[in-house]
Amino acid sequence: MVPGENEVGLHRIVVVGGGAAGLQLATKLGEKLGRRRKAHVTLVDRARTHIWKPLLHEVAAGSLDVGHHAVDYLHHAHEHHFRYRIGEMTGLDRGSRTIQLAASLDAEGREVTPVRSIAYDTLVMAVGSTTNDFGTPGVKEHAIALDTQDQAIRFQQRLINAMLRAHTQTGPVRPGQLHVTVIGAGATGTELAAELHRTTRQVASTGLDRIDPAKDLKITLVEAAERILPAVPARLSGEVMTLLSKIGVEVRTNARVTEVRADGVQLADGGFIPSELVVWAAGVKAPPFLHEIGGLETTRTNQLVVTPTLQTTRDPDIFAIGDCAYLVEPGSDTPIPPRAQAAHQQASYLIKQIPNKMAGRALPPFKYRDFGSLVSLGEYSTVGNLMGFIQGKNMFIAGLFARMMYRSLYKMHEQALHGTWKTALDALARALTRRTEPRVKLH
């Protein structure tokens, strides 16, 4: 047991997962309960820093520097009156009300923190999701997912190295050597394809004159469904498709991937896409360790099944929010989608309801509201639809207004974590820094 976390009389709230929802929840509960010593609030995450997941495609493309946007968990916890504990959750003992954490290791494989357990009175699972490769051969060996900032950084470094290699090699650029195939045309894959089209050409223009962007650089977006962005309205999908075509991104729909190889992507119809750089952005599932963990009810994609109050069906002291939670609201026949706005709404709900649970009061049901979708194609354009914006009707938006709305979502996230003044100062600092740094990260 971690010393100093079992003081008598204080309710122990443990949040597992420092993504947008988990970090927001721990921050607000720390300010609300931790500051006043009404509860111990602990955040557990295997990483040391947080970055807003919708920004990962910009990290992967090199258009965003993690160092300017990452939140240091240890410092943030100290500032907001909660504890941060590094470690990957591996087990749950509901009898003793403890979670088990694996040892954390440094880059040399040396142990930093040992295997240990942390006790809770209220546990919130906010561990997000991972991509689902559906067992497709070659994905683990030859493709990179974008679930974490480490993966995004790894792909960006692989991309830069590939371009440097092509520039300095004695022979010509091989077919597919600098082709990037993005598998999965949801929001992440679509936004990444557009951002990569721009940044690869900017990198090539920084002195890599042996690379011909028109001939050597190619971005292909592959989707198994009949259209890209299958979860958003057809009009929005069609508008994005038109924009991608205009900038030169090749889009293949109704294309199911059967294998990822070192030299490209094999399709079910017999087609082959030469590509030595592959991103897998298709499919979503909760982390495998959640499968029936502690005897809790889970789905076939490892999500924790919860009641309308976001409490797990077999233990009212354990909540789940975000992508790892499975909830079908009364009157609906589909679960709440794994989207950032759902996670934010669920975190806001628990900020209010956990104090009610501690006081023994009944909890009202959570109600999800879909505010629409926004898709950013970087500097090319942003499009979206706002749900119920005017008298219950949907409104299609595009261009500058849509881009401002998209950026405001991140500012709202920052404001929830840091407050108005720090968010404004950080935005000013980044604006000044952009004037003195390359537009694309080159290392």
Automatic annotation (TrEMBL):
Keywords: FAD, Flavoprotein, NAD, Oxidoreductase. InterPro entries: FAD/NAD-bd_sf, FAD/NAD-binding_dom, NDH-2. GO terms for molecular function: NADH dehydrogenase (ubiquinone) activity; NADH dehydrogenase activity. Gene3D superfamilies: 3.50.50.100. Residues 12-347 form the FAD/NAD(P)-binding domain. Belongs to the NADH dehydrogenase family. This is FAD-dependent oxidoreductase.
